[in-house]
Design brief:
The complex is a heterotrimer. Chain A is mainly α. Chain A is built from 13 helices and four strands. In chain A, a hairpin with a 2-residue loop joins β2 and β3. The two termini of chain A are about 40 Å apart. Chain C is built from ten helices and ten strands. The chains are: A mainly alpha, B mainly alpha, C alpha/beta.
Chain lengths: ~325, ~350, ~240
């Protein structure tokens, strides 16, 4: 028996760090332009907070696409549903929300987050069954039907909650800011960063350390082979779809609190943003989606301060710039 | 009436089309008054706009969410020049010409940029670009009038006060409004016939071949990007023309009448309900949709009132005329599922030749 | 000859509008290595994919280990004991060698003794255990793909052209590996273009042409009959290198 060992020198493929450096470079570049350290800190933190929330909303969308080649044009509906769950959930918990104690606030906030995730996760299951599965593999119909789903859910929200803006005051202990030297750090943004980081780390852990995560990553690369190894990719897909919807719901709740109001139009708005983010990251790439979210949010905040008119198109400009550099996004997924 | 090698096929369909066109041609005389005139003009504009979208969706198999952007470019082109240069035919021509060029360049850029990749990618990119454009148009107030838009004056002969014939034979009055309507109607007819020609040309055939089987078409030597980009540019130009005509009729251009995402949804609904890949579907669909929008919503309002009065407040909310889109959305999903060929497909009883 | 583990009778497969398999009949007996030979486009890969349920059979029946599997879903076919090594290898390049094998081992962590046995003939896998599979060389990827199929004991291995595109030295080594796997008692259905490999490894042979089986018999008989080879396989195969 002869042994095969041809691997004398392994062509070590380097991990591509350039995209990771982009947000850092952007932050450093913005510093002299902004001028003041305290303003820069505030803007950067605001950007990070915003980026984390966008990432929560977008991560599910990019995974669902990577796994099954399905782009859900109704994803924004779950963001809007999450926002309204906040309205409903906080209504009976006024005392806890008004309490100056952070613990009491969190006792209202955490159940509301869980509720938002459960509601949107279940909604995602129904959406997948009714709208995505019947047109699976037919891109044109898929785009049209999921867009139809967005319209219907948005209208159902209007019919149920009325067309008006629903004010959503922040919990008492999360209002205002913490002074940090000359800079002021808004408390809620800090919380958003923490929640976003938890989501990111949980996703990373699942994807790299669990068999389920390995299956998802393998499925993104070659779903057929995952089936040939004896796993049902369909079931995996529904799970990812539900988890993605739940994260969109969580992001929607966080975003509504950030803006201190809930309205169904947030769904359509955020969907455009999430699309840009996952295009920038490379369709199907979770890491790319994370960097894309941070990059977009940082740029939006710096531009909003430096040149408000430019900020209106900073998202699209960023997308164009990234695509000119890497036509398939920062981290193209190999099989697509 | 059909000056093309592509007849509508199907007796009922032909009869229906003739009916719609004849009624539209005589609308100012059949139904005097400003509401019917607005309805008829909107049907004409939407027939053109939706037909141009069908060029993309039905013939090239591309989903774009930027069609209202091109519609808006046409509308703003006319509005900005007429507002800035005053009501002259020259300003109108300049506005239309500039709009067509801008629309074509935008469409070319988006096409070269993103038509290489999947349908999904193109749909996402167009959605993002269109929303950025809408935001920009509503913010650049010095140019576009912002959220308020621009109200402008049209050349004298098109103004309501103008009289070509006053109390003529049979008591007919032909005002500037009537002339405006016929300007819209005739332009739409001509542009529609041009589109019929295009889809029947070798170019149109190649587009359909690409839609059916891109790999095979490529193997046969057709350049997919070239054909798809050209289709995108043509559709954009026709949409810009529709936008210009709409602006001319309304004598106003603002975000709600030209760039709103609701218009995009209307286009999708009409093209799917009318029938994708037929062009004729745009006429039938636009006629039905605009009529329903103007008269069925009144019915919904009545139902809403009745339900409200009977104390079923929560249920009533679903019949509020403002929830018009809810029912359209449901209808849309069902149409895509069960009648992907739309009304025209159903009416074409005989099998395809 | 022992009883058949896998039986195809009258199998037709359509891919889109194209009719690829026109009634394929053959048996794969237990514990032997059966070769599936034929010219390019004869339908060998389609046959393997049809067995695996990746392209469903439109007619005919496939029996595996006493059960009918032609209507079964791919994951069920896999869990009933069929392992598949596709022509494209289909390794998960974003995952490490270890992770690839962890996924392939459905019962839990890969068995240590079996891993040692595999490392015996695939030492590169031990060496690059924690490297991303995408960084392996072509030959190493092929080994990983085969390793995935044998990391747990399976009743039947479907292997599609493992030697394709590999250097001659590696091919010789791979032949020894395949023999070793066969000696362990595995049943193998092997598609191969390289006649030298086929005659070295195969016990039995089926030859396909235009979506049908045109010859079945012992590998040794075909190897000994030059004119038969020429008639069945033409010049597309290098016989007797």
């Amino acid at each position: 028996m002869s042994a095969i060992d041809t691997g004398a020198a392994l062509p070590q493929q380097k991990t591509d760090y350039i995209p990771v450096l982009l947000p850092i470079a952007l932050a450093l570049l913005a510093f002299p332009l902004v001028g003041s350290f305290s303003t820069w800190t505030t803007l950067t933190l605001a950007g990070l907070a915003m980026g984390m929330m966008i990432f929560a909303m977008a991560s599910g969308l990019t995974l669902v696409f990577g796994l099954m080649d399905v782009m859900n044009f109704g994803h924004g509906a779950f963001v809007a549903v999450g926002a309204y769950v906040a309205v409903v959930a906080f209504a009976p918990m006024g005392a806890l929300m008004q309490s100056p104690s952070l613990a009491a606030n969190l006792m209202a906030l955490i159940p509301a987050m869980l509720l938002a995730m459960i509601v949107t996760g279940v909604a995602g299951y129904v959406f997948e069954r009714l709208l995505v599965r019947p047109v699976y593999g037919q891109h044109l119909k898929q785009i049209l039907i999921t867009m139809g789903g967005l319209i219907v859910i948005e209208q159902l929200l209007y019919a149920t909650f009325g067309p008006q803006l629903n004010p959503l005051p922040l919990p008492a202990a999360l209002r205002g800011s913490i002074p940090l030297g000359a800079a002021a750090i808004e408390k809620y943004r800090l919380l958003a960063v923490v929640v976003g980081l938890i989501v990111f780390l949980a996703l990373q852990f699942t994807l790299t350390r669990t068999k389920l995560g390995l299956l998802i990553r393998a499925g993104v690369e070659n779903g057929e082979m995952v089936e040939a190894l004896g796993y049902r990719i369909r079931r995996l897909f529904i799970g990812v779809f539900m988890a993605g919807s739940a994260l969109a719901g969580l992001g929607g709740l966080m975003w509504a609190l950030y803006r201190e109001q809930a309205h169904a139009s947030i769904g359509g708005e955020m969907m455009v943003t999430t699309f840009i983010v996952i295009i920038i990251g490379g369709l199907g790439s979770v890491g790319g989606c994370f960097i894309g979210s941070i990059l977009l949010a940082l740029l939006a905040n710096y531009a909003g301060f430096l040149a408000p008119k430019v900020a209106l198109i900073s998202n699209i400009a960023l997308m164009v710039a990234v695509l000119l550099w890497r036509p398939r996004g920062l981290y193209p997924v190999t099989s697509r | 009436m059909i000056l093309s090698g592509n007849p509508p096929r199907g007796k009922l369909l032909t009869a229906l089309l003739i009916l719609v066109v004849v009624v539209l041609a005589l609308a100012p005389f059949l139904f005097p008054g400003s509401k019917p005139a607005n309805v008829a003009a909107k049907i004409c504009v939407f027939a053109l706009l939706v037909a141009s979208y069908d060029l993309l969706l039905g013939y090239a198999g591309i989903v774009s969410f930027a069609h209202t952007m091109f519609f808006g470019i046409g509308a703003y082109g006319i509005a900005i020049t007429l507002y800035a240069l005053g009501p002259s035919w020259g300003a109108m021509a300049l506005g239309l010409g500039a709009a067509v060029v801008v629309a074509a360049v935008f469409a070319l850029a988006i096409g070269l940029f993103s038509l290489r990749v999947q349908t999904i990618f193109f749909a996402m990119v167009t959605l993002a670009v269109a929303s950025a454009f809408a935001v920009l148009a509503s913010q650049l107030s010095w140019l576009t009038g912002g959220e308020d838009g621009r109200t402008f004056r049209v050349p004298e002969v098109l103004r309501p006060g103008f009289r070509l014939i006053e109390n003529g034979p049979f008591g007919i009055t032909i005002s500037g409004r009537t002339l405006s309507y016929y300007l819209v109607f005739c332009s739409v007819v001509v542009l529609f016939l041009v589109m019929l020609r295009i889809v029947e040309s070798p170019f149109g055939r190649v587009l359909q071949a690409i839609r059916e089987n891109p790999f095979r078409a490529e193997a046969l030597g057709y350049r997919i990007i070239y054909h798809r980009t050209l289709a995108n540019v043509l559709a954009a130009v026709f949409a810009a023309c529709a936008g210009a005509l709409n602006a001319l009729w309304l004598r106003y251009t603002g975000p709600d009448t030209s760039l709103s995402f609701n218009i995009m949804i209307d286009i999708l609904l009409i093209v799917v309900i009318g029938g994708m890949g037929t062009l004729y579907g745009a006429i039938i669909g636009a006629a039905l949709f605009v009529l329903a929008e103007n008269y069925l919503q009144t019915l919904m309002g009545a139902a809403f009132g009745a339900l409200n009065a009977s104390g079923a407040g929560f249920v009533a909310n679903f019949f509020n005329p403002d929830r018009w889109l809810l029912w359209l959305g449901i209808l849309f999903i069902f149409s895509v599922y069960f009648f992907p060929t739309g009304i025209v497909g159903k009416l074409r009883a005989e099998p395809k030749s | 000859m022992t009883e058949a583990l896998l039986t195809l009778s009258g199998v037709h497969t359509h891919i889109g509008r194209y009719h690829i398999l026109h009634g394929v009949d053959f048996d794969v007996p237990r514990g032997r290595t059966t070769m599936l030979l034929g010219r390019n486009g004869a339908g060998k890969t389609t046959t393997l994919r049809t067995i695996m349920g990746l392209w469903p059979a439109s007619q005919g029946s496939i029996h595996f280990d006493g059960a009918r599997i032609d209507k079964a879903a791919t994951p069920d076919i896999a869990t009933s004991g069929v392992a598949y090594v596709p022509e494209t290898m289909a390794i998960f390049s974003d995952l490490t060698v270890k992770e690839n094998l962890v996924l392939a081992a459905r019962a839990g962590a890969p068995d240590e003794r079996r891993l040692e046995w595999m490392f015996g003939f695939f030492p590169a896998l031990r060496k690059f255990w924690l490297s991303r599979a995408g960084t392996l060389s072509g030959g190493q990827k092929q080994m990983l793909s085969i390793a995935r199929a044998i990391v747990e004991e399976r009743k039947l291995l479907l292997i599609d052209e493992p030697t394709k595109g590999l250097a001659p030295a590696i091919v010789s080594a791979l032949i020894e590996c395949l023999k070793e796997i066969a000696r362990s008692g595995a049943t193998i259905l092997l598609v191969e273009q390289n006649f030298r490999v086929a005659q070295d490894v195969g016990d039995l042979v089926h030859v396909m042409d235009s979506g049908r089986i045109v010859h079945s018999g012992a590998m040794a008989d075909l190897a000994a009959d030059d004119s038969l080879q020429k008639r069945l396989l033409g010049l597309s195969l290098d016989s007797h290198q």
